[in-house]
Design goal:
Length: 243
Amino acid sequence: MIRVKAAFFSATGPAPVGDDGGYLRWHLLDHMPEQYQLPGLVHATRWIADGDCQQARIAGDGPLADIGNVVNYLVGDPVQKTHDDFMELGLRLAEAGRFPERRPSLQLRLLALHHWHAAPRALISAEVVPFRPHRGVFLIIEEPASDDVSSWLQWLHAQHYPALLQTPGVAGAWQYGSTDFWRLHPACQGPPQHITVVYLDDDPLTTAKRLAPSIEQRWASRDVRPLFAGPLRSMIQWEAWPS
């Protein structure tokens, strides 16, 4: 049985000019570890679109076209209490002076985990793909463009994902979607959305080129439209210390 039921996705823009990495060091060494006191937090990670990653994205629309960073918190039961405590913890840390810098948020969402897949060559269960070390991800954020996307979802799971998982450099893929099952804080609310995380164990830029033709097929039916699609690299923990 899979422990993860949902995930927070927090997206912000690129680092400002002249940034020395202080914000990322604070988040990796202070803020992110504190989240593990939450009852249902299973895993936390950050991905960054720096360097050529920004030029390698294949879709972007509206504010999300400017994504530079994404923080991903995987959540298990109790999801509702974890959501509530997550929102409260940020306030407590700010009151304690441990929120020294805020980056403008592009989006904060809590989405339900719907499907999970592992590439056959990865030799792991689909349930543990995010916990396997990865070099980066190809992140896809989409919104419905029609009232009925059932045919699109059937195509994804019958044809698209099996082909995607055969791509060299792809270790697996997890797909999330909006739900009204939980009571969400206004900061986490928004129009219906799908987010797919494709986990990469090869160079993100190289793998993104291989994936691009397949990813673009997702929008051929016009049932959904992309808000963001592009590679991000993983933030390795030891990169938190300056050389």
